[in-house]
Structures are given as C-alpha cells and as structure tokens.
Amino acid sequence: MSSDTETHPSGRPGSWALIALNLTLVMVLGLVTFAPNAIGQFQPGGQTLAISTLSGHGDEQLLWMFDTNSMKLVATGWDRTGKILIPLDHRDISEDVMKLRKSR
Question: Which domain holds residue 11?
C-alpha cells in the first residue's frame, strides 16, 4: 500500500518541513525586527527627498537629502551633544548617470 505523504519516524507527516519553515520565519522576523528603520518625505511639487535613518552603529542618526533639480545627494549626521548637523558626504548623481550612459 503506497501513500503520497512521507511518514517520519515520529509518525507525523512532513514534520521536518514544518520545523524548517518555522526556523526560516523566526530568522526573517529577527531580521525585520533588528534592521534599522528609515523614514522618507517627499512633498508633491517639492524638489527635495529627505530620508532619516539610524546608521546601524548604535544610536547615530543620519539624514540623506536628494535634490531632484540639481541631482545632488547629501548625507549628514546628527550630533546630539551639540545639536547640529554634521556634513558627512555629498555626490553629484548626474555625473553617475552620464557615466552609465557612456558605458552602455
């Protein structure tokens, strides 16, 4: 007599598959829970996209600003003690777009 379901020594069909599925779901839950959060804002008719997030190195806060007119991206950090923005880096995205077009 043959059966379509695989029976394991425990007598329950597919128990190893359920255990693997549960472990996978627990790992995904851990990744989602401990991943840094990011919040973005873009107003209709505006020219700047702003995204605030944690850096992943403790409680450091970062602010990414992208100006759609000039195609420039600026990254700043927030100094909690002095309560000021610290410029970290900037990038001209239009140069990257030109390089990409030339490479194709």
Answer: 1-35
